[in-house]
Amino acid sequence: MFVKYIPDGFYSSHGNGLYPSHEAVCVINPYEEKITVHLTLYFEDRDKIDGFAVEVAAERTLHIRMDKIVNKDGIGVPQDVPYAMKIECEKQIPIQYSRLDTTQAEMGLCTTIV
What we know:
CATH architecture: Sandwich
Number of domains: 1
Largest sheet: 4 strands, antiparallel
Order of helices and strands: EEEEEEEE
Number of helices: 0
Low-confidence stretches: none
Radius of gyration: 14 Å
Helix content: under 10%
Number of strands: 8
Strand content: over 45%
CATH superfamily: TM1070-like
CATH class: Mainly Beta
């Protein structure tokens, strides 16, 4: 199992204008078979939330929107709470994390590749 971490997650409940603030974990599966990506969320002041899993088809990309994903128990990502992510996959894949912050009129986009 290959593991990567994203230490700075934050899903804001506030937005300004047409676009909601959101985050995405963007992955590409360059392999000839599907893969499953597992996510676990860690917090400063509460227990972790695990059980998030998505399948990525062979030779495809997927943008995992953190405002839309739910775990096996139907629990989504909490808003306005800092968190970190552990991302696990049976094969090594490129991962890009992006956050669109629309809390002010001057929107900001940050991104990183892990």
